[in-house]
Each structure stands twice: as structure tokens, then as C-alpha cells.
Amino acid sequence: MNCDVVIIGAGPAGIFTALEMVKNKSSKKIVIVEKGRPVEERRCPKNKTKTCVGCKPYCHITTGFSGAGAFSDGKLSLSYEVGGALPELIGEDFAQEMINYTDKIYLEFGADTRIEGVEKNEEIKGIRLRAIQAGLKLVDCPIRHLGTEKAQEIYLAIQNYLIDAGVEILFGYNCKNLILENDSCVGVFAEKAVNANEGLEILAKHTIVATGRRGADWLERLCEEHGIAHQPGTVDIGVRVEVRNEVMEAVNQVLYESKLIGYPKPFKNKVRTFCQNPGGFVSQENYDNDLAVVNGHSYKDLKSNNTNLAILCSHNFSDPFNQPIAYAQKVGELTNMLGNGHILVQRFGDILDGKRTWQKELARSNVKPTLPDAVAGDITAAMPYRAMINIINFIQAVEHVVPGFASPETLLYSPELKFYSNRVKMDSDFNTNIPGLYCLGDSSGWTRGLMMASVMGVLMGRRLI
Ligand SMILES: Cc1cc2nc3c(=O)[nH]c(=O)nc-3n(C[C@H](O)[C@H](O)[C@H](O)COP(=O)(O)OP(=O)(O)OC[C@H]3O[C@@H](n4cnc5c(N)ncnc54)[C@H](O)[C@@H]3O)c2cc1C
């Protein structure tokens, strides 16, 4: 197969590349290779089975048209300060201009016009004052909340728009490798996800890898094999915290998401809150290597009694070990082993008391786990000491901002791991050291959110029109 542009991965980064080209009436032939299914065929069987059945050949939560975005909470962060390091590459003002532009595209395809976190200034001032007193920074970030079910409708509209415009989307194809000739990238080799014997060579002038965090270790192998210049990324290790909505109400109502950052003693590492889901649900996602990790999301209409959010500690390595992904995988595997393959959950009070949580003890609390197949146990038996101390001290600081947050019944789920791909070296036009090859979105290591990945796609699309 021959084309002008081949895009690997139909997540926001890949989709917005094609979208920007089509919107600007590009006549180039675009092919998208996506190992998952069209958005309307993506279903997580857990709604019926109540427990994760470990779908093969891939998890529907993170794979298929719109990538990890389809089943995500769909919170579009509208500030350049949130969502990754792309502003370092293209400049903060330009990043903000592009966020505003890309936000308008989401609105065109049906996003809610309401923006959270921009009104109620007096209340926000009060939250900030308490954060300052607790030694925490409150980051301002307006949020447009799509909601899990509405996000799927928006991405379906985009999918149909692209197909109607002649973009060819090869669903069910897994890209295996790049094709290089004379040190330039001239296309990719893909094979059917369910039948590896059916292969396809796609030759293209421009090859764009936009495979998300799921593709992080695959891309790492490609970097080694083809000499793609990169530097080791960061990995975030933490927990997913769940409390009753009453505890978070003051923050949920004015900010929707409280982005707090701290550097707790004694290590003074950066610890932050991430992905807050008022009335949301804790969820499980499975990686291809069978690693089960915890996440969270919330629907626009269906609400639980709880709010969940992640608390993450960033880890960087240098010498003699610089493989952050492998490190976090080991932590995840150990935690999965203790949970017999399930997500572990423990009450905060039990952690302070130095005891595990028993399943029957969960029923004694006000907060009921929204991840029913999580297994009560001892997350401290698998969590590295430094990360655990950071988390405990950070939770105790957040208690000053949100009284009740550090209550003994607060639930901590593990492993909450955020793998950020090794950062692919590129210039501000996204040129890598391999002519014809570009890396975008979360797989490039430069983004870690829907909006920033979409922005990177828009900019790539503009370049290729
Ligand atoms: C449960 C959950 C909730 C989230 N909530 C939010 C949120 O509220 N707000 C926010 O900003 N971010 C959120 N995120 C993160 C956000 O979804 C990602 O940052 C974003 O989707 C990254 O976009 P991307 O295009 O770089 O990659 P992805 O969305 O991961 O898409 C990559 C695509 O590439 C495909 N792919 C991978 N490897 C191959 C291959 N070899 N061959 C073919 N196809 C391949 C995958 O199937 C996938 O469809 C959430 C993520 C999860 C998992």
C-alpha cells in the first residue's frame, strides 16, 4: 500500500493530525493504522461481568479509535501548565494559543460549552490560602469536562468525519516495525492483530508514530533498533485515593479538579494530585504484558457517592540504572502478585497502624469501593519506601486543604502507575533524527493528556498539509 502519510495509532494525537489536514483541504492520501476497533465497537465487558476478564488481544479501555481518550474521563485541561512538556518545545504562549484553537474543534464536534474552575473566585481564594498554609501549590487550570459517554459521541463524530473525507483507517492492524531505507523512514510493516500471518507493508513519505502510553515499551525497542535519538523519561508511581463526595465537595464544586503540588519532607520529591473524578468510578486497565493498573473516570450523568484522584510521585534515574519503565513495571508486578492479579486496596488508617486491610473491614466505612473486584490487602508490602513516605506525608498535607482527606477510612488503591515514554528528541517542527519519521502524543514522551496530545496532532497536521 502506498500513501503520503501513515499514522500509527488512532488516539487524539493521530486523529488530530488527520483532522487538521482534512479541515485544511489537504489532498494527501492519509492512512491510519489502529490495532483496536472503531469507537462504536469498543466495549468493556466489565459492565456485565463486574470483574475484569483481561480481554485479548488487547484491552478495550485503551485500544481502538480515540485511544485512551474514549473511556477516559474526558477532562480537557485548558492550561498550558497541565498535560506535559510540549510547551518547552514550542513555547508557552504558542502552546496556549494552540490549546484555545484545539478546544474550538472539540466544541465544533459537540463538547459541552461549560468550563469548570473559572468562576467562584472567593472560594478558589480560600482553597488556595489553605494550600499555601499546608505548603502546597494550587495550579490554575480551567477544565472542559466531556464525560466518558459524551467523549465517545464526540470521537464517533470525528471518526465519521475522517472516513467521509477519505481517510483510510485500518482497524485491527498492529504495527510491528518501521521500514528504513538509507537511514530514512519510508513506511511501516503491520499485521492483523488476530492473525499475525496477514501482513501489510505500507509505504509513505511521512510516518507518524502516535501509539500512546501503551506503545511505550514497543517504541523503546524501536528507538534501540533504529537509533532514534531519545532520552529516558519519567515514571510516576502512586496510589488512587477514594473518599466520599462530602469530603471533596468544597473543591469539586468550584474547581472540579484540584491540581495540588507539594514537595513533602524528608525527600522533598515532587508529589502531585492528578485526574480527579467527582462522583466517579475507580477502574482497572490491563496492559498487553498482563500488568493490571488502577485508574479512574467519571460519567457526565451517572454519579457515584465517591470522588477519586491519583497521587503521584515522579521518579527519574540516571547512573547506573536508567530504565524508569522497567522499574515501575516491577513495582506493578509485585503489587499484582500480592493481589493475586487484582488491584490492591487498603485503608489509610491501616497503613498508619502498620496492618493490612481485611475485606470485611471495608464494609465498616462510609466509603464503599467503586472498584468491586479490588482486593483488600497491604500495598505497603510492594510500594518502595520513598514513594510510600511521600504519599503519606502528602495526604496529611492535603488534609489541611480538604478536612477528612486523611481520614482512617480513606481508600488507597495500587498500583497507580503512569508510564511516560522515553522522550524522543525532536525540534520544534517535530523532526526526529530519522528523516520521514515523527513521534507524537504520549508515545513521544512530550504529552500526557488529551488536550496536549490533540494539540501536538494539530501542529503535525499543519506541517503536512
Ligand atoms: C482511564 C483513563 C482516563 C484518562 N483520563 C484523562 C482525562 O480525563 N484527561 C486527560 O487529559 N487525559 C486523560 N487520560 C490520558 C489520555 O487519555 C491520554 O493522554 C491521551 O489519550 C494520549 O493520546 P495519544 O494519542 O498520545 O495516545 P492514545 O490515546 O493512547 O492512543 C494511542 C493509540 O495507538 C494504538 N496503538 C498502540 N500501539 C499500536 C501499534 N503498534 N499498532 C497500531 N496501533 C497501536 C492504541 O490502540 C491507541 O488507540 C486518561 C487515560 C486513561 C487510560
Describe the structure.
With 465 residues, the protein is α+β, with helices and mostly antiparallel strands. Helices cover 32% and strands 26% of the residues. It has 14 helices and 21 strands. It has helices spanning 12-23, 46-49, 86-90, 92-108, 121-133, 148-164, 216-226, 245-255, 324-338, 348-353, 359-362, 385-401, 441-444, 450-464, and strands at 2-8, 30-34, 75-77, 137-139, 143-145, 168-171, 173-181, 184-192, 199-209, 230-231, 235-244, 259-262, 271-277, 281-286, 292-297, 306-315, 344-347, 375-376, 411-419, 423-424, 437-439. The strands form 5 sheets. Strands 4-12-13-16-11-19-17-18 form an 8-stranded mixed beta sheet. Helix 1 packs across helix 6, helix 4 packs across helix 14 and helix 5 packs across helix 12 (385-401). It starts with a strand and ends with a helix. It binds flavin-adenine dinucleotide. Residues 8-14, 33-36, 62-64, 67-69, 71-75, 77, 174-175, 210-215, 218, 275, 283, 285, 295, 297, 441-443, 448-451, 453 line the site of flavin-adenine dinucleotide.
